[in-house]
Amino acid sequence: MLTIPVDDRTQLRLLELSHAPALFRLVASNRDHLRPWLPWVDRMRVEYDAKSYIIRSLGRFSAGTEAHFGIWFEQALAGTITAERIDAWNRVAEIGYWLGKGFVGRGIMRRSAAALIDYLIEQRSINRIEIRCTPFNRASQAIPLRLGFRLEGTLRQAAYLQGKFHDHLLFATTADRWRRTGAAREAATSTQSIPAPPAQRIAGSTEAHPRLS
Length: 213
Ligand SMILES: CC(C)(COP(=O)(O)OP(=O)(O)OC[C@H]1O[C@@H](n2cnc3c(N)ncnc32)[C@H](O)[C@@H]1OP(=O)(O)O)[C@@H](O)C(=O)NCCC(=O)NCCS
Known about the structure:
There is one protein chain. It contains seven helices and eight strands; from the N terminus they run ββαααβββαβαββαα. By secondary structure, it is α+β, with helices and mostly antiparallel strands. It has a single domain (about 5-185), classed as Gcn5-related N-acetyltransferase (GNAT) (Aminopeptidase), CATH 3.40.630. An eight-stranded mixed β-sheet has the order 1-2-3-4-5-6-8-7, with helices on both faces. Strand 7 (about 150-160) and strand 8 form a beta hairpin. Helix 1 (about 20-30) crosses helix 3 (about 45-65). Coenzyme A binds near residues 133 and 139.
C-alpha cells in the first residue's frame, strides 16, 4: 500500500477496497457538509458505490492519471485528497480534497496537501500543481493560499453544483516556486489575503461558507 507520512498523527494511504466501509460511513454522515461543494456526494448511496469508486480510482492510479488517498488521522479516516488530471507529458496535476466535519479546523488539510505536493514534485516529477475552487469556498481557498500558491485567474462556469454553473478560481504553484517558498510555507502565516466572496451564496453551506440562493 502506498503511504505518505504527513505528521505524527496523520498519514495518506492510497485508497483500497478495505477502506470502502469507512469511506462510505464518512460520506454518509457528512452529506450536508459536503454537498454544497462536491457534485458526487449524493451519488454515493450505498457501500457498493464506495467500492466502485475505489476500483475506478485504482485503475486510474495504475494508468498514472490519478491518485486517490484516504487521510488517516489517529487511525480514523478523516477525508480524502486526490491528485487528478495528472498530465505526465506536461507534468501537471490538480489536487482535490475534503474532510469530514469533525476534522476541520485543525490544519489537517493544509499539512496533507503539503505532503501530497512534496510527493508529486519529488517522486512523480510533477512540475505544476493546480487547485480549483469556487469563489464562495473560503475554507478551500485558504489551503492554496496558505501553501504559497498564486491565484492565476477565473475559469468561467467550470463547475456545475446544485443545478447551477459556477466559476472556479484557479490557484497554481510550480516545483521551483514550491522549493523556493518552503521555509516561508513552514511558517504558514495567515497574512495572505483571501479574495472577497461575491454576493451570491451556496445553499446548505455553513456560516463560514456563504450560501448561493
Ligand atoms: C476545504 C476543507 C478541506 C478545509 O479544511 P480545513 O480543516 O479548514 O483545513 P485546515 O485546517 O488545514 O485549514 C487551512 C487554513 O485555512 C483557514 N481557514 C479555514 N476556513 C477558513 C475560512 N472560511 N476563511 C478563511 N480561512 C479559513 C484555517 O484557519 C487554516 O489556517 P492556518 O493554516 O493558518 O491554521 C474543508 O473545509 C472541507 O472539507 N470542506 C468541504 C469540502 C470542500 O469544500 N472541498 C474542497 C472543494 S474545492
